[in-house]
Amino acid sequence: MSAAPAIDVKGWCPGALRPMESGDGLLVRVRPWCGAFSLEQAAGLAEIAAQLGNGHIDLTRRANLQIRGLSESRMPALHEWLNRLGLLDPDAATEAARNIMVGPLADTRVRAVAAELSRALASDARAVSLPAKFGWLVDGGGPLSIVGERADIALFVTRHGMALCLDGEWRSGGSVELALEAAFGAELDLPRIDIAPKPGRRRLGDLGSITGVAAPFGRLEAAQLQNLVTLAQKAGASEIRLSPWRALYVDAVMGDTGLIVDEDHPLLRIDACPGAPACKSASVDTRGTAQKLAAGGFAGTIHISGCAKGCARSLPADLTLVGDAGRYGIVRNGTSRDPVERTVDVSDIDGLLHG
Fold first, then answer.
1. Nearest to 257 by CA among 234, 236, 227
2. Can you tell me whether residue 333 is helix, strand or coil?
3. What is the arrangement of strands in the sheet containing 100-102, beginning at the earlier edge strand?
4. Residue 169 burial (CB < 10 Å; 0-12/13-18/19+)?
5. Residues 250, 270: contact at Cβ < 8 Å?
6. Can the peptide bond before residue 277 be classed as cis, meaning omega within 30 degrees of 0?
7. Is 117 in contact with 100 (CB distance < 8 Å)?
8. Average pLDDT over residues 242-249
9. Whose CA is closest to 103, among 203, 155, 35, 57?
10. Tell me, what DSSP letter sits at residue 192?
């Protein structure tokens, strides 16, 4: 059995104030406030991607949005635009600390907790000392609950108060203040409780009062996002909510948006990072490979990673392809960081459907 390829993990995530160099220019990540963009904000982001970037927009596993293909000379215009939209943090440290996922079905109580947490992180000087990629989760349950997603500290809002998940254990009597103290190393004397909030899952289409849509591999084009905003406005919506499943949820019943609404669509069983040439760490066209495998009828889940970092998926997949020096390492029932069984040329990919 072959060894897993070397992993070069970046210790930080890109932001609007700290962009990351990629194969197609600078990449910036825009974090929504309380898990949603207003329609005005979403329209502005589509325009930014079209005018300042290369038109490519990525949805991330941390329920954020990324704009690609920017340049250093366009950073001042980007910051001015984001500031007008109310999406620019005061500094890069605050932006990085505000790493909060909010459930797409969050009601006013859950949103209020997320807003309080955001303000607390921005005002507490200790927040800059948190480890890179320290993640928060705020949820209130329901069929789209994100409570099962990875987070360093989870806040679960119930009718009876707030529960905190610390080190994998749920505790009652929580609050935003106590959650912050735990993040900064305090030992909390909160009673453990025997609860197991039920994680939700990605659901698409007409969900009653909201509509879920997805795009292959979480990649939207600027025109697609602008079209979604236009249709949402006509449907009487007010916002677009993000999720860790790279799906968007509009708070209205929508007609045809041109995006995926079938939960069984074959492309939604495939997770693929941008790959080459968009990412400097990749040497393979991951999404071209994904399209071929989707057309070939593979029945299980597939993860195609341009390198061993596995940015597109952390959970095991039935078939994982790991790019390495222009070829693919094969992992079955594992992740991109597991040892590969064998390595194949890109031209041999079709044989994996029957191998």
1. 227
2. strand
3. 100-102, 136-139, 153-158, 161-166, 169-171
4. exposed
5. no
6. yes
7. yes
8. 95
9. 35
10. B
- Helix count and strand count (H, E) for the chain: 7, 20
User: How far apart are the C-alpha atoms of 289 and 311, rounded to whole Å?
Assistant: 17
CB 66 within 8 A of CB 14: yes
The alpha carbon dihedral of 110, 114, 117, 123 has a sign of: negative
Task: State whether the Cα torsion 168-137-217-323 is positive or negative.
Answer: negative
Q: Tell me the β-bridge partners of 158.
A: 161
| Strand partners for 299 | none
- In the chain, where does DSSP find H-type helix? 39-51, 75-84, 92-97, 108-123, 176-183, 222-234, 286-295
Count of CB atoms within 10 A of residue 118's CB? 22
pLDDT tens column, 258-317: 999 998 898 898 999 989 888 888 999 998 888 888 887 777 899 999 999 888 888 899
Phi, psi of 140 (to 5 degrees): -135, 15
SS3 102: strand
User: Is-contact 52 77, C-beta < 8 A?
Assistant: yes
What are the pLDDT digits (tens) for 64-111? 999 999 999 999 999 999 999 999 999 998 999 999 999 999 999 999
- The Cα 118–Cα 121 span in angstroms is 5
CA distances from 91 to 85, 88, 123 (A): 16, 8, 12
Q: Give the number of other CB atoms < 10 A from CB of residue 4.
A: 18
Contact 305, 322 (CB under 8 A): yes
- Relative orientation angle of helices 222-234 and 39-51, to the nearest 10 degrees: 160
Average pLDDT of the chain, as a whole number: 90
